[in-house]
Amino acid sequence: MATPSPAELREGEGKQDDEEEATELESIPYHPPAPPSDLINTETTVDPSYIISLIRRLLPPTIKVNDEKQGQYSQDQKIGSGEWNSADINMEHENEQRMESTNGYEVSLPLDPWEECGCILWDLSADNSHAEFMVENFLLDVLLASLTVSESMRTREICLGIIANLACHEALRKHLFSTNGLIGTVVDQLFVDDSPCLVETFRLLTVGLQGCGALTLAEQLQSDSIMSRILWIAENTLNAQLLERCMAFFSVILESSEDVCSILLAPLIDLGLPGALANILACEMSKLTGVEESERGSVLDSILCVTEALSVTDKYSHLISSNRDIFVQVLSLVKLPEKSEVASACVTAIVLIANIFADEPNLISEASEDVTFLESLLDILPLVSDDLQARSALWCVLERLLLQIEEIVAADSSSSLQKYAMVLVKKSNLVVEDLVDHQPEDSAEGDKDLHKHQKTANAQITSLSRIASILDRCVAARHGASSTSSEEEDEKLHRLLSYCIEYIT
């Protein structure tokens, strides 16, 4: 199958957006998320015969009970106490309508019996007991039949959504891999140009790469044609939810067992995953200046999480740290004046920057010449307060950065000294608050993260020593020349200097 151009996919997604706009009420109630790992134990019980009737109604009309070509649908196989009969799929309710409410108005929508039944099963499949009953009554075979014969994108989306929900129940996952032809058919859906279908396909594949059957699925996905299609979708989709699903898929690969990771990561790298991440990151950053900023924060964070995870892999970390486009975009993110909408992404970016600096020390010198970068790092201190890894990374970045700044102010004019000193004074409250909120005694002996606490403490002491050195040099410069600083600035400078000296001693 020929891969469509980016314009074609965008056009397809545009049409999909128009359709969703026109039928918004129809689609909103029927996109249940994947159930959490600790599945909700519902107190309500659905009549098993009702579930059986729903499953019957999903059986494609083209599948006949006596058709010898459909061996798996022979008369010997029944759903519950009834045979699979296409007569059960009828339009007896074709004139019925359902009422949906939006913005205070009642809107009448035509009722599609197949879609209605499918959406109910989609919802019910989030419950473990209901899901088990569905699988016991051949729902997977029925869904496979629908995926095989249906040309409706909505039908495929519902089938994939139900299967993805079933896959979230670990005990049922083995049934997906034992249903002949199901996994191959799911993988084939990657070549469908429909965003909702692709969203559910990636959700299903992401779950499938966890636990039993992961190696089997990895082997089904490893071909260059499939891997290149996945990368193409990630780079070209305009659908935020689909992009997040793609990133979740990449993340699971990086977190998978060594066998699964080795099968899938190598072809992705060979096909250009680092470059694709750089392009996607640049595209998302370009959207942050628009009205979508509040909606793109989670998407941006998902991209950075994949990039950060790749930056610590033994074989491929250099492909991230040496990619200048990634470095430039991450620094641009950190330097955004308003960080509230992208706070989570900024936290991930700090860890990524620390990893990049560890691999490429020459980049520290470049970053240290940007006063805005220092100011932005200090602005992020409150955001990493509750994240031990990110806070440790930030102080390590500050430690490296301040070493370079100390050398700059020692060799440069007093104007550079004043600029850096004023940034430190301006953000002094953030520095002090962070240190007060994380006293050394907070990390007691025996803490499993004791080593990380110690690393952070060492970085803090070194950083404060360098801050004290810069401030001390600034004080001396002001005494030796007429100063234009205010009394308030001088008072803050001396207060921060005193605090640094007291802390490190």
TrEMBL record:
Gene3D superfamilies hit by this protein: Leucine-rich Repeat Variant (1.25.10.10)
InterPro entries: ARM-like, ARM-type_fold, Synovial_Prolif_Regulator
Subcellular location: Nucleus
Membrane-traversing stretches: none
Record region (Disordered): 1-42
Domain of life: Eukaryota
Name recorded for this polypeptide: ARM repeat superfamily protein
